[in-house]
Each structure stands twice: as C-alpha cells, then as structure tokens.
C-alpha cells in the first residue's frame, strides 16, 4: 500500500496554496517527495475555472474571485469548508483514467461521511457529492504526468446563505449548500480531517505516514 504525507495547513489564502501545489507537483513528478495530501481552509474566495470563463459566467460583485486552471466552473471557498488537495501520482489499480480517479475521490467523500451517519450520493447533474437534491461537495483536478493538483471540498458549516447565493456551472443559486443547512450539525474541520486521513486506506489504497502542521506560509517542508 502506498504511503502519503499529510500537511495540515490550517487557514491559508487560496492563491498561496495554489502556488505551493505547483511546486509540490513538480517535486512529486521528479519523485523527490511521496504522495502528499494538503488539508486546508481558505478565507472566502470564488475560483473561476476555464469552463466558467468560456461560458461567460458572472460572479456577483460581493465575492472576491481568483482564476484557476483546474477543470470545471466556479467554486466557492471559505469558512466552514474543508479542502483536500491530493498531490498524488495516480498509477495504482483502478486509476486508469481521469473519470476513474474522480470516482475514487467521490467514493472517498461518501466513505468519510457514512460513519458519521451522513449518506452522500452522486447526481447526474454534476460530479461531486449531493444530499437531498443539494450539492455540498465539489471535485476538480488538474494533471501533469498523472500527478494531480487541486482536489475536493466539503461544505460542512458555511455561513448562512453565502454559498447558496452563488450560481454557476449550470446550477441555479441555492443548489449548492452545506451539510449544516441540510440539518447535519456538529461537524468540524478537525473531525473531517481525521476521517479523510483514516478512510484513505480503504478508499484510495493509501495510508498516511508523516504529518506536519503548518503555521506559516509556504514553502512547506515535507
């Protein structure tokens, strides 16, 4: 079973982490570091992917925005959302193409939540994880030589009405929400961090080896 290192980054601006992901991706491609998982929360920002730019999606002026090079459209980041960025080399069994990797990440999210009594599901409208017809988790990756950047989000307790006010990717406003708004209370970033790490073994055929808690900006030792 492949091992991975974990970076518990706390709260860091999205643009800072995006730059660090590029550095770590190059190191992983050159086999200078093992698979590395960044777990982080971002101050509020809406990232705008190439599809959103192409489709002319307009983000309301009350949101700060940042361009991004992963697939997909617009994604809200902010308090009450955990973000997991796997800087992984995807070459194990069951990782034969982008679609299968996305499905692995979706299954990972489902497996994280099931022991907490939360049943997440897929929806044909868009990749990610849904509950009661609402999307609370997004998945989007960028690959170079089959090493990924970007990753997944879980909205567990976002500010009331904030992510719900954002429309994009063909979904009307109010479709994306948080688990707390769907009645799932008591979740914290620490709980979800622990569940993501522990469930990686069964979901991704990878097990955590080393942990680092970062209190400053990158570059992070790994």
What do these coordinates show?
The structure is a single chain. The protein is an alpha/beta fold. It has a single domain, classed as 2-Layer Sandwich (BirA Bifunctional Protein, domain 2), CATH 3.30.930.10. Helix content is 24%, strand content 32%. The strands form 2 sheets. The protein has an 8-stranded mixed sheet. Strands 4-3-5 form a 3-stranded mixed sheet. α3 (98-113) crosses α4 (189-204). The chain is globular and about 45 Å long. The mean pLDDT is 90.
Describe the secondary structure blueprint for this structure.
Elements: E1 2-11, H1 14-29, E2 35-41, E3 45-48, H2 50-55, E4 65-67, E5 74-77, E6 81-87, H3 98-113, E7 121-123, E8 126-131, E9 134-144, E10 147-155, H4 189-204, E11 206-213
Parallel strand pairs: 1-2, 1-11, 3-4
Antiparallel strand pairs: 2-6, 3-5, 6-10, 7-8, 8-9, 9-10
Helix pairs in contact: 3-4
What is the count of DSSP helices, taking H or I runs of 4+ residues? 4
Multimerization status: single chain
> What is the CATH domain class?
Alpha Beta
Please give the radius of gyration in angstroms: 16 Å
General shape? globular
> What is the rounded distance between the termini?
20 Å
- List the strand order in the largest sheet: 7-8-9-10-6-2-1-11
**Series of secondary-structure elements, N-terminal to C-terminal:** EHEEHEEEHEEEEHE
How many distinct folded domains? 1
**Average pLDDT metric:** 90
CATH topology: BirA Bifunctional Protein, domain 2
Low-confidence segments, given as residue ranges, are none
The strand count comes to 11
Strand content: 25-35%
Fraction in helix = 10-25%
CATH architectural category = 2-Layer Sandwich
Q: Write out the CATH superfamily name.
A: Bira Bifunctional Protein, Domain 2
Tell me the major beta sheet: 8 strands, mixed
